[in-house]
């Protein structure tokens, strides 16, 4: 861009605002004040993320834990249903025949039972952990 084009562009901006003083008032000073308020709003918004971020992460982690634990069982049930349908014709699960679905349900219930058994044997208590952190 040549110097003449830059000067013409700047002159066009100043003439759109109605002269030097309105240009400085609306664009330069107004831009500084607007940016100051925008930074204050961003700071307040950031404080909200600091306060509610861990709560949101805990909720999302809990959702992922539940879906990983019980979603796998649903996948086993679905595979058992599909094996039952295929077992009437051909396929790997044909040797189970119509018992493919009850077998899948049994495997799913057994896996939930093993998970609950293991969870009940853990020596971890969130409340005891927090009390130890506070010095009680």
Would you give an account of this structure?
This protein has 136 residues and is mainly alpha-helical. The protein has one domain (3-134). The protein has helices spanning 3-17, 20-87, 100-121, 126-134. The termini are far apart. The mean pLDDT is 75.
Summarize the structure.
This protein is mainly α and 136 residues long.
Topology:
Blueprint: H1 3-17, H2 20-87, H3 100-121, H4 126-134
Helix pairs in contact: 1-2, 2-3
Average pLDDT, rounded to a whole number, is: 75
What characterizes the major β-sheet? none
Principal-axes geometry comes out as elongated
Helix fraction by DSSP (H/I, runs of at least 4): over 70%
Count of alpha/pi helices: 4
End-to-end separation? 72 Å
**What's the helix-strand series?**
HHHH
Radius of gyration: 33 Å
How many structural domains? 1
Catalogue the unreliable spans. Answer: none
Total beta strand runs: 0
Estimated share of beta-strand residues: under 5%
Which structural class matches the secondary elements?
mainly alpha
